[in-house]
Amino acid sequence: MASNTLNESKQLATWYFTFAFILFGAxxxxxxxxxxxxxMPGFLFEILDxxxxxxLHINALVVWMVFAMFGSVYWLLPDETGINTIGIKMGKLLYxxxxxxxxxxxxxxxxxxxGPADQTTIWFIMEGREYIEAPRWADIGIVxxxxxxxxxxxxxxxxxKQTGIVTVLMADxxxxxxxxxxxxxxxxxxxxxxxxWWWVIHLWVEATWExxxxxxxxxxxxxxxxxxxxxxxxxxxxxxxxxxxxGILGMGHHYFWIGTPEYWWEIGALFSALxxxxxxxxxxxxxxxxxxxxxxxxxxxxxxxxxxxxxxxxWFVLNAFGNFLGAGIWGFFHTLPQVNLYTHGxxxxxxxxxxxxxxxxxxxxxxxxxIAVQGKNNIKVLKNTKSSxxxxxxxxxxxxxxxxxxxxxxxxxxxxSRAQMGATWAGYFDGQEGMxxxxxxxxxxxxxxxxFLGFALLAKDLLTTGKNPVHER
Amino acid sequence: MIDPSVIRPxxxxxxxxxxFLSSALAMLFGGFYVGIYTAVKVKMLKSWxxxxxxxxxxxxxxxxxxxxxxxxxxxxTAKALIVSMIGYLLLPHAVYHMQHQVHEENEH
Lengths: 473, 108
Known about the structure:
The complex is a heterodimer of chains A (473) and B (108).
Chain A: H1 2-39, H2 50-81, H3 88-111, H4 119-124, H5 136-159, H6 164-180, H7 190-225, H8 229-250, H9 263-274, H10 276-299, H11 310-332, H12 337-343, H13 347-376, H14 386-420, H15 425-433, H16 435-464
Helix pairs in contact in A: 1-2, 1-3, 1-13, 1-16, 2-3, 2-5, 2-13, 3-5, 5-6, 6-7, 7-8, 7-10, 7-11, 7-13, 8-9, 8-10, 10-11, 11-13, 11-14, 13-14, 14-15, 14-16
Chain B: H1 16-41, H2 50-71, H3 75-107
Helix pairs in contact in B: 1-2, 1-3, 2-3
């Protein structure tokens, strides 16, 4: 009986991962549509305009990551607590509520698109806030689903074994759910409104999602290479302290130009400069545990690799690098107010967004999907296949290519649209007409296609793993 | 015709590329510093590599100095950058020390 219920939590996790993967595909598809519209502005004009494609691209990104987050927690909960996940039936019901709500919201985005500037649109079509455009009814639904998820996590965490990973997740997920409320009301003052709105996405990414990544990295290192729990969990606490220490005030760099007091320049600059430190620490974390565990095995006369899931480990290592590159380097490029004055809102932001979301979050969530596939199919050692290697190479190469292309386009905008032409209307258009900007957009589309092909290979690899005889059982 | 009053003169046109490169290098060198430091400590690299780690920290600090100078950062931000660099220098030592203690407690 116990094992049946245990499996139920993991089964629910696989449902979450499956829907997350479908939304991941949708995100890439609508991203391709938007990228094509930069190159061919008439593409799907008045059918699926850039504003709609971009909304779908960005919201699909946020929602697939939330689905994969929930899936990851439901997957690790029985392993960590040692008991059956409490409230699994409610979890399953809420999963279907969540899926239905997202399906309706997407259909409304595609077929209704816009509405009059009144409460009807806010309640039934979209709220118009970037990243979290979901209409009010869906907002309320998301809060209910998130509360149910947090309740399951807390009830299980408090009854079962309270490991460091579960304790961190319990605190983190309540902050994650609570922050969503900051994006559910409007104020008459646009500066105040933007201030609260940023709390949702940027406190998610700077604080709660990074902490979540730390917890998942800790679980992954214990699961995949048998790293010592006490060591891994101590790392986790250090990362949590550093992330909350730098991330919360570091988001001051979003207050530079929205009409908030000027002291945010100094607060944002100081804590933004400190923000890369925990990202570097995460990179060291993986290197340290891998080196120590492998070294201990070799000293004991066992030179074989300690990794029991090669594709997942590849994605986890990519996460350490990607987090550092995308959030660290591409973030630090333009985080200080002196240079942010010129880069804010250019394709620099887009370059940072692409690499940071991919490097910091998508990678580790795909790694968790591989862990789930391994567990679901009772595979002892999951090996790399041609598809898994091509998938990771094409996705990582594609996203990196898009990032470089967007960075070049952003650099043109900084020089032409901002420095030379003073952020004027004419400057905006002159910047976009430059050869380097246009070629940057061409390359972004090409690299987007490479990413999508990589995604198709990833889908093939995940779907065929169960029947692939190359893995050790 | 662009009104000259809307042009922001704080950063010279030719300085943007060095600013972006130096900020990227600051992070990259910083990554090499903590990476090599940790690799030596966990015996993935020989101990002779440790001076190279500190060389990378120095390059990080120099890159940050270049970046700050070209950006004409204010006094407070300059101090913040210095504090960050001292933090980067000390961080791997402090973290490794704690890690080592935990390992010792668990293995002996």
